[in-house]
Design brief:
- By secondary structure, this protein is mainly alpha-helical.
- The protein has 2 domains: 48 residues, no CATH class; 80 residues, no CATH class.
- The longest helix is centred in the C-terminal third of the chain and has 19 residues.
- The two termini are 17 Å apart.
- 7% of the residues are buried.
């Protein structure tokens, strides 16, 4: 991107995209999709999921052994992983862990599915381990300027 003149060494946001200051922004899909909705077509925003190198992140939940009502917490967790709970996450553009299953079984409402990149884009998403994340962070931190040719501020 830098060699092609499309890299702007700043942290891009919806406002800088709208102003044309950052024509391309690399962000988590849920943020990009929300930005698209916020900008309401001014400018038109295209959210693209790469064909390779799709990285997924997970949010971890737990129930405390000291919870005053552990069974209530268990019911909440059960709801979060139900079809209804997973679709609730998806309404906020957060692709839930069961997304591929919901898409395959045609359980995602058509109007919601129409707002998302194609379901196939997420089929090969990789979930890096903490060790892999830490190794990547170290590599990026040490080599960013040399490889990209720009210092992001």
């Amino acid at each position: 991107m830098n060699k092609a003149g499309n890299f702007v060494p700043v942290i891009g946001k919806a406002a800088s995209l709208a102003q044309g200051a950052t024509p391309i922004i690399i962000r988590w899909d849920y943020n990009a999709l929300a930005d698209r909705d916020t900008l309401k077509g001014n400018p038109k925003v295209e959210v693209v999921v790469p064909k390779t190198g799709v990285v997924a992140g997970v949010y971890v939940q737990a129930i405390s052994a000291f919870a005053p009502h552990p069974n209530a917490a268990k019911l909440w967790m059960e709801h979060l992983y139900s079809d209804e709970g997973q679709i609730a996450w998806l309404k906020g553009y957060c692709h839930p862990i069961r997304f591929n299953d919901l898409a395959k079984n045609k359980k995602i409402p058509a109007d919601l599915l129409a707002k998302l990149p194609p379901a196939e884009a997420y089929e090969k998403a990789a979930f890096p381990t903490l060790d892999q994340q830490n190794a990547a962070k170290e590599t990026i931190t040490k080599q960013w300027d040399a490889v990209v040719g720009a210092n992001v501020k």
